[in-house]
Write a structure and sequence with these properties.
With about 450 residues, this protein is mostly helical. The protein has 19 helices and no strands. It is globular, with a radius of gyration of 21 Å.
Length: about 450
Amino acid sequence: MKENSLSRKLGLFPATNIVIANMIGAGIFTTSGLLIADLHDPVLMIVLWFAGGIIALCGALSYGELGATFPEAGGEYMFLSRIFHPSLGFLSGWVSFIVGFSAPIAASAIGFSEYLLRTFPDWLGSFSGATSLSPSLVSRLISVSVIILFTVIHSFGIKFGTRVQNVLTILKVVLLIGFITAILFSGKGNTGHFTVRHHGEAGSISPKAIGLALMWIMFAYSGWNASTYIGSEIRNPVRNLPASLLTGTFVVIILYLLMNVAFVYAIPPGEMKGVISVGGLAIGNLFGAAAERVVSVLIAFALFSSLSAFIIIGPRVYFAMARDGLFFKSVAKIHPKFKVPVIAIALQGIIAIIFIITGSLEQILTYMGFSLGIFPLLAVAGSIKMRLKSRVSLKIPGFPIPQIIYLSAGTLILILSFLERPLESGIALATVAVGIPVYFLFRKSP
């Protein structure tokens, strides 16, 4: 299948929206409670959110050059295949297929169900009693239903899908700004929460715990590279693709920092510990149960935006792999009317549903965070190689400082995270290793 089977229909605004929508998702709405449980110190948590933003921005600067040079579908798969070797590209695409998009889709769907059920706890109890289904199973069924719905929506074409995406992203950003404004200007929170340490002092926090926290935070920032996966469908990619990465990432950094300040202002660290639906708890603490229900349901539906964006992007990677003969040929099939890779979209939905059935949110975050941290490091190293050989179409100022920061921080995060959670990290490495024989199987296929 030729590259031009995907049409360049997207300008800067929808491309930036896809970046923002990918980044603002389950991570910011669900991980701060888990982070406080390990870090104990709210100020340290906010500092780490800022550090994660800087790392993501350094990655976006590097990918801006790569995206302008290789404006094709596939992201890391395309970059690593062109710069190093098709085997590295395949392994990145393999991880994207198993983990990179399906797992965030699952995490967003789980976040949606958690917030929705926080809004209607009585309904959950009644439904569970009437059907003899456990609350956990009801939550999983809701998550699966959402994935099926958006998988169907994005099978009807990129223009239709991005119209839905634009609306969802705008509503989500408006919601976040409203959430931040309502909390920080309410006068009902407590600045003393910033000096409270829950069950421990900052000095007792291990580097391994900080590394794991940063890995979860980097999951929340994942998506800073989103528009590189749809490079074949962006108009004037040399200008619009880097601009979408940098603009989207900067906007999200600001929103994330303000969101976490709002969380801490509204919730004592002890109450935040381990809570997934932390946004609903923050509003409930300041404005009461009725407001908590309203905001929880709004956040639940805001998670549709990130879930929707992942469903748009992921299949373009599998499409690119199949087109190059490194995946099942049927995955490269483009719908004759809607011009989207329909089989790739459906396959991704199935993998996401399997994640929901088999794992908890914390397990998914750790496994996914480690897996997703590997290949962007190689891609950023590739950007250095391309610049030194003067083979880039666009030179973004600052080289090589952003690349060095990203490579150093990313490598350290992976090492510390492995030491803190060797089981989940080991499974992630095993996922990569399994891709090696799979690559050679596809290479030998006629």
